[in-house]
């Protein structure tokens, strides 16, 4: 069982080491804070979030001399792109004080690729849009503030969204109270009706043998780790951070690249586990009885029944209920934007192709579920081909390994971004919306194929060992672990070095080769390591809590991101971002997600899955 207290201390210490080991660097200019917010709780009028673009040259924003190339996005946030929360008490009076004539248009030609100005009002419904009077009023307020504090700066202002603050606060408080009451009532009723089954689960023998109990243990670890990782990594960008310099130093520390190179392993290992389990199931009894398409269809149907009910419920919640959970000025940027995406792109999540939708993503973290399902089908078809043409098995496996290498190799070769992490802090600030790194490299299934192929090979070896146990198999697996580990270290070091010195004239061939070889070595190492453990170690602790955590993993993973967005976007004032705060809020998100997962699993997911299996699979 995962020790949460130990994990919390470890995460906090790791974040502190990365943060405070960073060397300080000088600032060229003194800029206004990125976030300044009028009092959200005291405002009883129209509250607007305003984007402010500054010109340090004193040129108006429509001038060709409007200076934007001031900050290196690789190391700093755009100090020329600010967020201001403004409480407009008298729109008409303020609008009448505007002396600039017609509102200037945004100078899109003055911004280069790394300065991408993301303000698309299509993300928001018309009720959140501002009219011209409101735009003028906001411009007057912002100009006054800048003139008093930073004379000489010229600003272009554009409202992102507005909402009636008094109704928003009341709606949020009422929604939270009703949700809590319903959850408590539902939980009490569910516990009372299922008390007998719960007692049997708790009293069940912990030593019951289960071939893949190691996977249950890892699911418990990753369940906590993925929630904390998302909160620590993205939390500062969902909150109005006050100490933005601290966030910059943490994100640009040299060790941050190493963490960025290794951290994806936390989720990618699941591709290996999924492929290995699928391989073992399909090969069970295959030599004696040829594999029937009905068995393959049943396995795919079970997979869909496992994933789809909760998937539909979560999509429905995001599409309908998000608007009632706006608890802070930045809430609409997170909740309403995703709500609109879920209302228009829900079908991509339903068909498990959401990993190809990073422009207007609904549940962005569902890319993993979609990629896993795509790899699941691909590996299943590959296994069917090996069983149908056994003499072609070596050729098919060789083609799969080559394809595993070519996916990330060609992606890195034909793109111009850093393959280790997003290009700029500007992308992180906007939660990787429309990020080329995320859309082209991180989420496509073909760039994660090596992990599934490694799991399939591990499953083939495991099946062979179960039929004919042999010490030579264990020795070969040990050798594969050692060789893969050495290659992993070598290619990891080469990837970091090549990423640090790459330039357009150097070409990207070596960087692409190192990165693809690194991913392939990592997949071999973790696949062989998992196989080695399963072949020889049988005495894993299998408590009821571990088994329950494994059942709840998918549910916690799917719902933790909506909970994360609601909790973090409810901040109403600029906040000092610290590792301790991020970890503490991360455990709050995990606690809420786990409690909801228990209710949803026993009250919705489990009954619906049982019903669908009885109706659809009664003949299989």
Automatic annotation (TrEMBL):
Superkingdom, taxonomy of origin: Eukaryota
Residues spanning the signal sequence: 1-26
Domain Acyltransferase, first and last residues per copy: 216-574
Sorted UniProt keywords: Membrane, Signal, Transmembrane, Transmembrane helix
The keyword Signal is assigned to this record: yes
Sequence intervals crossing the membrane: 176-196, 217-238, 258-283, 304-325, 365-384, 396-417, 437-461, 473-492, 512-531, 552-573, 585-604
Keyword DNA damage carried by entry: no
Chain coiled-coil ranges: none
MF terms in GO: acyltransferase activity, transferring groups other than amino-acyl groups
Pfam families in the record: Acyl_transf_3 (PF01757)
InterPro entries recorded: Acyl_transf_3_dom, O2_lipid_transport_reg
UniProt name for this protein: Acyltransferase 3 domain-containing protein
Organism expressing this protein natively: Anopheles atroparvus
């Amino acid at each position: 069982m995962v020790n949460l207290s130990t994990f919390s201390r470890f995460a906090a210490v790791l974040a502190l080491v990365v943060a405070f080991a960073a060397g300080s660097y000088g600032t060229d200019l003194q800029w206004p804070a990125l976030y300044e917010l009028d009092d959200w709780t005291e405002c009883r009028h129209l509250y607007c979030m305003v984007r402010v673009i500054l010109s340090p040259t004193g040129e108006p924003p429509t001038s060709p001399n409007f200076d934007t190339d001031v900050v290196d996005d690789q190391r700093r946030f755009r100090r020329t792109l600010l967020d201001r929360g403004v409480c407009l008490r008298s729109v008409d009076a303020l609008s009448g004080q505007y002396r600039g004539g017609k509102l200037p248009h945004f100078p899109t030609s003055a911004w280069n690729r790394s300065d991408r100005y993301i303000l698309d009002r299509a993300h928001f419904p018309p009720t959140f849009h501002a009219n011209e009077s409101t735009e003028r009023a906001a411009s007057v307020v912002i100009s006054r503030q800048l003139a008093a504090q930073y004379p000489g700066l010229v600003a272009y202002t554009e409202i992102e969204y507005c909402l009636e603050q008094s109704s928003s606060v009341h709606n949020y408080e009422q929604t939270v109270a009703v949700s809590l009451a319903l959850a408590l009532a539902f939980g009490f009723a569910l516990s009372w009706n299922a008390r007998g089954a719960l007692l049997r689960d708790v009293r069940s023998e912990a030593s019951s043998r289960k071939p893949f109990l190691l996977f249950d243990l890892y699911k418990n670890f990753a369940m906590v780790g993925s929630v904390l990782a998302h909160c620590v990594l993205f939390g500062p960008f969902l909150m109005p951070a006050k100490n933005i310099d601290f966030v910059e130093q943490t994100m640009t520390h040299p060790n941050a690249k190493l963490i960025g190179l290794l951290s994806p392993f936390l989720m990618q290992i699941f591709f290996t586990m999924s492929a290995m389990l699928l391989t073992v199931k399909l090969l069970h009894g295959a030599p004696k009885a040829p594999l029937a398409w009905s068995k393959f269809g049943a396995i795919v149907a079970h997979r869909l029944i496992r994933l789809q009910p909760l998937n539909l419920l979560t999509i429905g919640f995001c599409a309908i209920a998000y608007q009632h959970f706006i608890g802070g000025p930045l809430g609409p940027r997170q909740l309403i934007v995703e709500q609109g995406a879920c209302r228009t792109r829900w079908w991509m999540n339903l068909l498990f192709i959401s990993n190809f939708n990073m422009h207007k993503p609904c549940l962005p973290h569902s890319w993993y579920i979609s990629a896993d399902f795509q790899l699941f089908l691909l590996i299943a078809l590959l296994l069917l081909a090996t069983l149908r043409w056994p003499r072609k098995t070596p050729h098919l496996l060789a083609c799969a390994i080559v394809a595993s290498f070519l996916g990330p190799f060609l992606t890195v070769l034909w793109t111009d971004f850093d393959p280790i992490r997003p290009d700029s802090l500007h992308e992180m600030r906007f939660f990787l919306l429309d990020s080329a790194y995320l859309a082209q490299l991180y989420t496509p299934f073909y760039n994660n194929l090596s992990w599934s192929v490694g799991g399939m090979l591990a499953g083939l070896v495991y099946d062979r060992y179960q039929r004919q146990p042999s010490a030579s198999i264990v020795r070969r697996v040990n050798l594969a672990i050692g060789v893969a580990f050495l290659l992993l270290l070598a290619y990891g070091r080469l990837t970091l070095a090549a990423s640090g010195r790459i330039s357009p004239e150097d070409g990207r061939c070596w960087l692409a080769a190192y990165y693809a070889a690194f991913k392939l070595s990592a997949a071999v190492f973790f696949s062989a390591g998992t196989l080695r453990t399963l072949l020889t170690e049988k005495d894993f602790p299998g408590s009821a809590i571990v088994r329950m955590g494994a059942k709840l993993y998918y549910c916690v993973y799917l719902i933790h991101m909506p909970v994360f967005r609601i909790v973090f976007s409810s901040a109403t004032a600029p906040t000092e971002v610290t590792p301790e705060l991020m970890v503490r809020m991360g455990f709050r998100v995990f606690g809420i997600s786990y409690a909801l997962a228990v209710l949803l699993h026993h009250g919705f997911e489990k009954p619906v899955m049982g019903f669908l299996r009885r109706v659809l699979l009664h003949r299989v």
